[in-house]
Design a protein that fits this description.
Layout lengths: L7 H7 L2 H17 L6 H25 L1 H4 L17 H22 L2 H24 L3 H10 L1 H7 L6 H25 L1 H6 L5 H4 L4 H32 L3 H30 L7 H29 L1
This protein binds protoporphyrin IX containing FE and farnesyl diphosphate.
Length: 308
């Protein structure tokens, strides 16, 4: 393939900047949720190392999927199929970023943080990316990869609260199902064209896609409430500054309930589109709700952990 000159925007696009930054944000949440004694140098290394790994896997994922990306409308203009960046260049950039990110996490953060970053890289590139072409469970496999980054942040803090780390993992895991089912329904013709055997391609009416999304939205709403329950249990053990902590826990529970109810409403509309709305419209609305729900829910969780 002939390559036209790549600019900064093409290299940036190779790192899937929006997805990667939200993933790094989940790592930051994992870190603060573990109630660290803040260490600026360690925090900077955590940010830079995780961002490098996220950008690196994005480049390697595009290197692995250049053929199918070229055939789908949503992805055809990406830097490799668009003829801006050569496959070999993407390969070198991808590995260099992953190696640099892992080395930084290992040397300047903790072995645990490097371990979970490596687990994310392996799960995304060695399990999820190949599974997309052959397994009907690829989305659920991908959701494991996408749920690891909070554990990178959590593992950066010695003695962090393990129960909360797994709640974060659950939030991220279940969140991804409605997030992706909505996308997959919108772009199902694209996925059909490249023979990806995912649920949205096999389900002709969208009924099963929507039912699975709704079930996982209930689960994510419940997981969003779990930190209030954990905080309450910790509060009873600790005693002490009672009033303020209880008020913050109650405020968190109200916010989590409201966010969960809103997300569930969008998932219900995807399941049974209201009059005047198609399942396509409901899918886009559910996708945007997913993108808004996650940062809001995670911000509430950090506030709860830092103040209660
Ligand atoms: C099974 C796992 C996941 C799959 C298959 C998936 C797939 C996708 C796809 C295909 C899009 C593009 C939507 C469009 O163009 O209409 C998208 C958008 C997005 N995803 Fe995901 N995603 C997953 C997990 C995640 C995770 C873990 C995060 C971050 C925590 C995330 C953050 C985003 C964001 C911010 C967008 C909107 C910006 C953009 O289109 O780049 N996703 N996702
Ligand atoms: C620290 C670190 C390594 C962070 C990375 C986080 C991570 C692995 C997120 C992956 C989530 C996921 C499965 C996205 C879908 O990609 P896709 O390939 O299906 O998306 P596409 O169709 O747009 O290519």
């Amino acid at each position: 393939m002939r390559h036209t000159r790549a600019g900064f925007a093409d290299y940036l696009e190779l790192t899937k900047p929006r997805l990667s930054s939200l993933s790094v944000l989940t790592t930051v949440v994992g870190y603060f949720a573990a109630r660290p004694v803040f260490d600026g140098a360690l925090f900077f290394a955590l940010l830079a190392g995780t961002a490098a790994c996220a950008a690196g896997v994005a480049a390697l994922n595009q290197w692995m999927e250049a053929d199918t990306d070229a055939l789908m409308r949503r992805t055809a203009a990406r830097p490799i199929p668009g003829g801006k960046i050569a496959t070999g260049t993407a390969f070198v950039i991808g590995w260099a970023l992953c190696a640099a990110g892992l080395a930084l996490l290992f040397a300047r953060v903790t072995g645990g943080a490097a371990f979970f970053a490596l687990a994310t890289i392996v799960a995304y590139l060695a399990l999820y990316t190949p599974a997309k072409r052959r397994s009907r469970f690829s989305t659920e496999i991908g959701a494991v990869a996408g749920a690891f980054p909070p554990l990178i942040g959590w593992a950066a803090v010695p003695g962090g609260d393990a129960a909360l780390a797994w709640v974060l993992f659950a939030i991220l895991f279940f969140w991804q199902i409605p997030h992706f089912m909505a996308i997959a329904w919108t772009h199902r013709r694209d996925y059909e064209a490249v023979n990806f055997p995912m649920l949205a391609v096999r389900d002709t009416t969208g009924g099963r896609v929507a039912a699975w999304s709704l079930a996982c939205t209930f689960a994510v709403a419940a997981a969003g409430l779990a930190p209030a329950w954990l905080a309450l249990a910790g509060h009873e053990n600790a005693r002490g500054h009672a009033g303020t902590s209880l008020a913050i826990i109650a405020a968190y529970a109200i916010v989590a309930l409201a966010l969960g109810a809103w997300f569930t409403k969008r998932a219900l509309a995807f399941r049974r589109p209201p009059a005047g709305q198609t399942r396509e419209t409901a899918a886009r609305r559910l996708f945007f709700a997913s993108i808004a729900w996650l940062p809001l829910q995670l911000a509430a969780l950090v506030v709860l952990r830092l103040l209660a």
